[in-house]
Fold this sequence. Notes:
Blueprint: E1 2-8, E2 13-17, H1 22-31, E3 39-42, H2 48-60, E4 63-68, E5 71-75, E6 83-84, H3 86-89, H4 97-106, E7 108-111, H5 125-133, E8 137-141, E9 144-148, E10 156-158, H6 164-174, E11 180-184, H7 190-201, E12 205-207, E13 213-217, E14 226-228, H8 233-245, E15 249-253, H9 261-269, E16 273-276, E17 280-284, E18 293-295, H10 307-314, E19 320-324, H11 335-340, E20 344-348, E21 351-355, E22 364-366, H12 370-382, E23 385-390, H13 393-396, H14 402-408, E24 412-417, H15 422-427
Parallel strand pairs: 2-15, 3-14, 6-7, 10-11, 18-19, 22-23
Antiparallel strand pairs: 1-23, 1-24, 3-5, 4-5, 7-9, 8-9, 11-13, 12-13, 15-17, 16-17, 19-21, 20-21
Helix pairs in contact: 1-2, 1-4, 1-7, 4-6, 5-6, 8-10, 8-12, 10-12
The structure holds uridine-diphosphate-2(N-acetylglucosaminyl) butyric acid.
Amino acid sequence: xxxxxxxxxxxxxxxxxxxxxxxxxxxxxxxxxxxxxxxxxxxxxxxxxxxxxxxxxxxxxxxxxxxxxxxxxxxxxxxxxxxxxxxxxxxxxxxxxxxxxxxxxxxxxxxxxxxxxxxxxxxxxxxxxxxxxxxxxxxxxxxxxxxxxxxxxxxxxxxxxxxxxxxxxxxxxxxxxxxxxxxxxxxxxxxxxxxxxxxxxxxxxxxxxxxxxxxxxxxxxxxxxxxxxxxxxxxxxxxxxxxxxxxxxxxxxxxxxxxxxxxxxxxxxxxxxxxxxxxxxxxxxxxxxxxxxxxxxxxxxxxxxxxxxxxxxxxxxxxxxxxxxxxxxxxxxxxxxxxxxxxxxxxxxxxxxxxxxxxxxxxxxxxxxxxxxxxxxxxxxxxxxxxxxxxxxxxxxxxxxxxxxxxxxxxxxxxxxxxxxxxxxxxx
Length: 428
Ligand code: EPU
């Protein structure tokens, strides 16, 4: 086990290159199961969620060839299993995408319930509603989600809640079924558009991705493709907020500025300077941030996956800020960790009231989930003194080479092994 050790108080300066999008990669890789031909995927982030997906694909029978650190070639020709076990599924939310992909490939899928970050209840009823509308029978037995169909056919599905996962899973299941599938109230995140572009590059016929109505005209066969994944909106946003929070000046390269609009708007509101280029943004800040109100919403709203990082920046703002979480029931579990560092935050249900303090102070904290972990790193970079962040396997799920990238920007951060205490050794 390891921890990050940060000696904070130094402004981030320089440039950082953003990796491929985690949430696009974890949808696009399972989508390869919809063909029998090899596919090459470039710009994959080097993160543990991608490794887990690749391992799962191998266990199903796919051949995975690593071309270089961000490119793999996958040949799914010999995939003959439709079962994703608990061991494979539990580390990650995106394991649910094997339900849609295997259903689309083999008309059957048996997948252990997905894991991932703990934000309270994480239902998959809308995924199931979609599969059933396409003609599948979905049951839960022996702790596995089992979906089967004699034959799937196109259908209209209205999502009761805007769900990224359900939109993706229905697109996967429907890409090859006969007839027209319409998803209404679909999610519009950049990774939904990326998945649609990927499937279309395999010969699928998907229209409307990026709007709230997606139309999928099923095709009989999909072919192999070469595809490069979009840059990670949330990794980019995390470095943008880290630049502002440390009163730094950072050029964030390999981004799609359009995907960052809601984050840029909030940074401008708190007083940062943001310059946009074709494939880069530069963020700098010299003063204390101003207070603001933030409400997280599905895209194009302010992303819930930037909420903990934003709360960290606002913890030192002038005045009182309010964050309302509009996507998840319970996404403030990290607040206890931030208050250990001197932040003044009161949570009432889905709302956090943040009274800005002059500065954060270093303390030992934990990454309670992936983005909460990123927030603790930003807090550690802001606070003078040594901050230790434990449970960093959450962070490794979604941020490629975090310490290396931050060191390039002048941060003092390293990974250190956690030495177990005598009592822990006795227990082991
Ligand atoms: N929901 C339902 N029923 C469903 C599905 C979702 O009620 O069948 C509800 C959820 O409880 C939640 C809301 O709908 O309140 C949105 O959930 P969504 O399905 O959109 O989330 P997800 O697909 O499980 C993805 C990202 C998350 C991100 C959310 C929201 C991936 C692999 N995960 O999760 O990303 O927070 O969308 O944007 O794409 C992260 O990257 O750190 C992360 C947690």
